[in-house]
Design goal:
alpha+beta, DNA polymerase, domain 1, 4-stranded antiparallel sheet, 8 helices, binds FE2/S2 (inorganic) cluster
């Protein structure tokens, strides 16, 4: 039986028939991977509490880094993804990531419920950019993160301090003067030159995790809820999968956070039609 394979914070996971088609990545991360740092509230893509970072490849094989609202993503959609949660970028034991530290220094966290989502959004923004973010780009990137406590100003000021054009007033607010410069290495304490060779380490701000090659073979999984799940990589494979169900069954294209379908499921009871 085929299975969907992905990593969470570098650890290998695989999902198959034991997972229902409705199992979201939020549920999988919290219940199966037992990582409760990723929060949830609205479960409809509106609050940003559930955001994590994903490294994946486009259909043409290009590496891509982005944030996802895990409540909108089916766990079965994650084939080949390298997922990083808030626990993966820094914690009390191994030390906090500079984004977590900066949010704290700017008093951008009160109850803390929204903080993992905000931090992982910012982490994904930095990872997916050329480290040349402006204040405006940063501000516009947080339209889907909600905070009920802080009033947003301290959060945005913390994150705008990573901009190439930060307001000097924002920089003056930072508590630790050595933390002012952009992209200070959390390990060496000096400005990142991008050449030390440690960018496969979790603590590295420009972490350039090397991804495995995406498995190009289409997958077909019979789920415990009586449905079939097809995982495909291209349009040809979609039509080949439709041929397998005679083109008569009800099906739904599933692609969390986008309007393009790469995956679909059918009800096996329809196969006799
Ligand atoms: S729980 Fe609100 S966006 Fe996912
Ligand atoms: S700090 Fe409480 S919801 Fe943002």
């Amino acid at each position: 039986m085929d299975r969907v394979n992905f990593t969470i914070n570098g650890k290998q996971f695989s999902a198959g028939a034991e997972v229902s088609v409705d199992t979201t990545l939020t549920e999988y991360i919290r219940r199966c991977a037992d990582l409760r740092g990723t929060k949830y509230m609205c479960l409809e893509g509106g609050c940003g509490a559930c955001i994590v970072n994903v490294r994946a490849r486009t259909a043409s094989g290009e590496p891509l880094t982005f944030s996802v609202n895990t409540c909108l993503v089916a766990a079965l959609s994650c084939e080949g993804w390298d997922i990083t949660t808030i626990e993966g970028i820094g914690n009390r034991q191994k030390g906090y990531n500079i984004i977590q530290t900066r949010l704290n220094n700017y008093f951008g966290s009160q109850c803390g419920y929204c903080s993992p989502g905000f931090v992982m959004s910012m982490y994904s923004l930095i990872q997916g950019s050329d480290h040349h973010l402006t204040e405006e780009q940063i501000e516009k990137s947080f339209g889907s993160n909600l905070c009920r406590c802080t009033g947003y100003r301290p959060i945005l000021e913390a994150f705008k301090s990573f901009a190439v054009d930060p307001d000097p007033k924002i920089l003056r607010k930072i508590k630790d003067i050595e933390d002012i410069d952009n992209l200070i290495c959390p390990k060496s304490g000096v400005k990142c030159g991008g050449t030390c060779g440690n960018n496969d380490q979790d603590w590295c701000l420009i972490n350039a995790h090397v991804m495995g090659k995406e498995e190009p073979v289409p997958k077909k999984i019979s789920l415990s809820d009586g449905r079939l799940w097809f995982r495909v990589n291209n349009i040809k494979a979609i039509f080949e999968s439709l041929d397998q169900v005679n083109g008569y069954s009800n099906y739904m294209l599933v692609a969390g956070n986008t309007s393009k379908g790469k995956i679909f499921f059918v009800n096996v009871n329809d196969l006799s039609q």
